[in-house]
Amino acid sequence: MKLPICDVTPFTLQDFPEHTACILWFGGCNMRCAYCHNPELVTGKKARLPWEDVWQFLEERRNLLDGVVISGGECTLSPELPEFIRRVRELGYKVKLDTNGLRPDKLEMLLLRGHLDYVALDYKAPREKFIEVTGGDGFTEFHSSLVMLCRSAVPFEVRTTVHTGLLDEHDVTAIMDDLQKSGFRGSFYVQNFRAAPEMMRPLPEQPRRLDLSLLPTPQGFTLHTRNF
Questions:
Q1: Please, what sign has the CA dihedral across residues 120, 198, 138, 75?
Q2: What percent of the chain has pLDDT over 70?
Q3: Span 5-226 CATH architecture
């Protein structure tokens, strides 16, 4: 298979709830988020791993790991993703998908085929700030994926990274309101921005940290915070 898998995290206890897993990192992305820590992965400049090496790794760990996290970049851009997931599941793995939601057509296909056990969806910004944060106008596609997941039986979480030069308490509140209106019932993670040596676009230091006390009490879902 021709898959843009650029790296493998061989073991994690944190990325697939209640499961031991590995992470496969797919190159290429249809967003250009300023705070992204993996610019080479996103732009597709990072070298791909030989397919045979990736598959051998999965075969050797089929009785040691519960699941495979498919992440990126944006893995739904790969045409061969559905067939790859089918083969991974035949090895006995559960599959978690990390996605930005800009390919609702691909997500719908995976859900209808029963290929997914868990999904992590990135809610980058409210509609009015989506272009500024992501570099593209994909909010309509993202929101289609959100509604689709809310109506499906597959458990999923939502994640928002906050740099207070881009998003503030009003924006996070708007996201929480939208999650409630959409019928979301999972875990919502608000993640504090953390600077890295390499990022997609230069960002100034955060003017301040998000004031968590100003966020509303979530209705119907659970709010978690990270790195605050």
A1: negative
A2: 100
A3: Alpha-Beta Barrel (3.20)
> Which distant-in-sequence residues (6+ apart) come within 8 Å of 221 by Cβ?
179, 180, 184, 185, 186, 187, 188
Residue 106 to residue 17: CA distance in whole angstroms: 23
Give me the pLDDT at residue 193, please.
93
- In the numeric block, which tokens belong to residue 11? 């073991």
31: pLDDT strictly greater than 90: yes
Quick one: which of 131, 141, 156, 68 has its CA closest to 100?
141
Cβ atoms within 10 Å of 164's Cβ, excluding its own: 16
- Nearest alpha carbon to residue 34 among 166, 128, 137: 166
Q: Model confidence over 158-176: pLDDT tens digits? A: 999 999 999 999 999 999 9
Strand order in the sheet with 21-26: 5-12, 21-26, 67-72, 94-99, 118-122, 156-162, 187-192, 222-226
Cα 63 to chain centroid, rounded:
26
pLDDT score, position 191: 96
> Where in the chain are the domains?
5-226
Q: Is the pLDDT of residue 52 over 90?
A: yes
